[in-house]
Amino acid sequence: MVPILSVPSYLLAWLLITRNKSKVVQAVKKKYIRQMIINFLSVILLCVVVCPVLIPPIPGYFMMGLMAYDDSNVALPLVVMTHMVLMVAFAIMQLFKHQLVTLSDVRYTKKFELPVKIIRWSYILCYVLLAIVAISILPTLTIEFDLEGFRRGAFEYFKSPICLCSDMFIADPRHWKIYIPYFLSISFGGLCSVTGVSSVITCLVIVYDSRKMVSRDTLIMQRNFTFILMYQALVCIFLIIMPLVSVSTLFYADISISEHGLYYLLIISSQGAVNNMMHIVPGLWRKLRKKKSVGQSRQSWKGSAMWSTSHVASTPS
């Protein structure tokens, strides 16, 4: 149901982006649309293709989506979901970096040289770590060869017959094929969070510092775009990074949950629709303001026309 319910928000956001004539939006329009496509594909993948059902503290998941009817590697959904989350993060980082580079190139001053250089190197480190995480998750595909051993070990430890189910992917979280991608993913999420927030704060400082160098309209557009990036950073942290870290930590902390991870699934899959609000709310607000200003100008024109007509009629010939 989540993909169907989120379709209107994606269509409305797409319509408002394509019709927005702002120079700032036009410069990143392709990046915005690419981000929306990636977000919607991630929702389809998570809710329709995979639809994982968690049973913490048992370290594994069932598939209730389309992949449940396929005889592919049971670890494949974990790899695909990891790569999709990395693509979502990459799309957001591209927007952050674009704003930082644009502002630093246009309004470059010596006092921002060092922080801008550090953040740009931090983006490069994020990209390198992204590639490392994407590669580090691939060895989990070989867990299938040791799956029976993991099942027996989990059954002896948890005393649950569900561990022996052939439809369940289960793996020892202490195995290097699991904990290395886990800690690398946490490191990547932390680095992205710090880099994104630092980038947004630096952009705000640059915009504020250059307030006397540019026009008021340009200043407002750049400031609003930076606030949009801040909104995106918060959405990414609270609706992607924190739920994923929480879900992964459940297996290491030996914590059980009753809803089988449904709440986490809903939170993560809703991030795209929540992200679209940054396009929908300002876009609709601009439309309403424009319509209101047009209506007021028409009323004032009618009023002046009526006054001039009555004035002419009352003037003696």
UniProtKB/TrEMBL annotation:
<keyword id="KW-0812">Transmembrane</keyword>
<keyword id="KW-1133">Transmembrane helix</keyword>
<feature type="transmembrane region" description="Helical">
    <location>
        <begin position="263"/>
        <end position="285"/>
    </location>
</feature>
<dbReference type="Pfam" id="PF10318">
    <property type="entry name" value="7TM_GPCR_Srh"/>
</dbReference>
<feature type="transmembrane region" description="Helical">
    <location>
        <begin position="229"/>
        <end position="251"/>
    </location>
</feature>
<protein>
    <submittedName>
        <fullName>G protein-coupled receptor</fullName>
    </submittedName>
</protein>
<feature type="transmembrane region" description="Helical">
    <location>
        <begin position="118"/>
        <end position="138"/>
    </location>
</feature>
<feature type="transmembrane region" description="Helical">
    <location>
        <begin position="75"/>
        <end position="97"/>
    </location>
</feature>
<dbReference type="InterPro" id="IPR019422">
    <property type="entry name" value="7TM_GPCR_serpentine_rcpt_Srh"/>
</dbReference>
<feature type="transmembrane region" description="Helical">
    <location>
        <begin position="36"/>
        <end position="55"/>
    </location>
</feature>
<feature type="transmembrane region" description="Helical">
    <location>
        <begin position="182"/>
        <end position="208"/>
    </location>
</feature>
<feature type="region of interest" description="Disordered">
    <location>
        <begin position="297"/>
        <end position="317"/>
    </location>
</feature>
<keyword id="KW-0472">Membrane</keyword>
